[in-house]
Design brief:
Elements lengths: L1 H4 L5 H13 L9 H11 L3 H13 L8 H9 L10
Helix pairs in contact: 3-4
């Protein structure tokens, strides 16, 4: 752990934080690479940005971004934005 190596957190603090994270109800989602590629090509996005758009689209979530191209792509795909794109 970088934070532990750099003495920003003690081993006990890292262990405590890890235990607290495990208590959260977190669901891991993986973007669909084929759909992400289609979105990337359609909107001229990087695959990385398109993956976020794909996840928001599939999961019915709003998207928060300050990237204008990503915001435009999301809006054209019918994805609501959180806050204004800058």
């Amino acid at each position: 752990m970088v934070t532990e190596r750099r003495k920003r957190l003690t081993p006990l603090e890292v262990d405590t934080a890890w235990r607290q994270l495990l208590l959260l109800s977190v669901r891991l989602e993986t973007p669909d690479p084929q759909i992400s590629l289609v979105i990337a090509r359609r909107h001229g996005l990087s695959f990385y940005d398109a993956a976020y758009v794909e996840l928001a689209l599939r999961l019915g979530l709003e998207l928060a971004t300050r990237d204008n191209a990503m915001a435009t792509a999301a809006q054209s795909e019918g994805i609501p934005l959180i806050g204004p794109a800058q």
